[in-house]
Amino acid sequence: MGPTTQNAKNNGEASGSAAGGSLPRAAVKKPTKEAVSSHPTCQANAPRVEVLRTYGNVFLEYTLMNEYAIFRKKFLPGVYIMPSFDSALKWFCVIFIRTGIYEGGAFRLLLEMSPLYPEGGVPRVIFDPPVFHPLIHAITGEMDVSCKIAKWRREENHIYQVVEAVKSLFEKIPEDSKAANREASKLHKNNPEEFKRVVEECIAQCMDHLQRESPAGDPNNFDFVAHDAHDLSLSFDESSLFSLRMDSSECSTEATKSPQRLQGLSWMRDGKPWAKEGS
User: Fold this and answer.
1) What domain count does the chain have?
2) Residue 30: closest CA among 70, 64, 69, 71
3) DSSP string for residues in 173-215
4) Whole-angstrom Cα distance, residue 255 to residue 244?
5) Do residues 28 and 267 make contact, with C-beta atoms less than 8 angstroms apart?
6) Locations of Polar residues compositional bias (predicted)?
7) Residue 141 lies in a domain
8) Which domain holds residue 131?
9) pLDDT of 252-278, one tens digit each?
10) Is 112 within the bounds of a domain?
């Protein structure tokens, strides 16, 4: 059985081949004035933000297009990434942890860029549901990655580096970082065995959460299908969503067993930024 993606379920159709298809024109929306003004990194820079919102859309589009292209070329192992249907500034991500105390975990997260991007600070990393981790807030699910990326430099930093930092913080928890979850930090330092037990429970809960329909209600969020207790795979038509290099041992779908590399689609298409379409 091949379950369909949310695009197919919601729109009655699936996206086309990598060569000839594309997502609908309305798939990505420019940030609204209200969304921009409410973002925490922009409230102190309102005049500049308004100028960027009015005149900087093309710059923002091509910056994000370039970031997405760089991300695809990196082929980060155990990482799924897809921009939101509703906002170019939000990217859905699922990471699989292969080593460390969180080994075997699969976690859903949201990358949220500032409307000032590539300025505006480090992209926010928000887990859904919150993961039991010293650097992840127990209520909001936001991870503090400042111990890896203290300051965002537009000339040096890229979005893929944020995901690399997130994975490294799961593989090895820093001992001297300021805790976002004091309970998790205290348990990690004082009672490693109990910490490991709670982490294992958290991993099981997150795996169960992944098997449910996407909680965000966004058609570009990932839906997973579990074949057994140790196998979690993307829906069959994952190749219509994104580009990913992986071997067949990492995913049981027939699509990934083909020697041809997956070449997926994105709203980011060369020479066709969304601000210019329909203008």
Assistant:
1) 1
2) 64
3) --SSSPPSSHHHHHHHHH-HHHHHHHHHHHHHHHHHHHTSPPT
4) 11
5) yes
6) 1-13, 252-263
7) yes
8) 24-228
9) 333 334 333 433 344 455 555 454 444
10) yes
- Asked if residue 44 lies in contact with residue 115, where contact means CB atoms within 8 angstroms, the answer is no
In DSSP notation, 131-183 reads P--TTB-TTT-EE--TTT-SS--TTT--HHHHHHHHHHHHHS--SSSPPSSHH
The 8-class DSSP code of residue 115 comes to T
What CATH code is carried by the domain that includes residue 45?
Answer: 3.10.110.10
For 136-186, the pLDDT digits (tens) are 999 999 999 999 999 999 889 999 999 999 999 999 999 888 899 999 999
The tokens for 39 are: 């973002």
In a domain, 152, yes or no: yes
CA atoms within 13 A on the CB side of 74: 19
SS3 69: helix
Q: In the β-sheet with 142-143, what is the strand arrangement from edge to edge?
A: 79-83, 90-96, 106-112, 124-127, 142-143
Report yes or no on 125 lying in a domain: yes
What residues does 90 pair with on adjacent strands? 112
- Let me know how long the chain is: 279
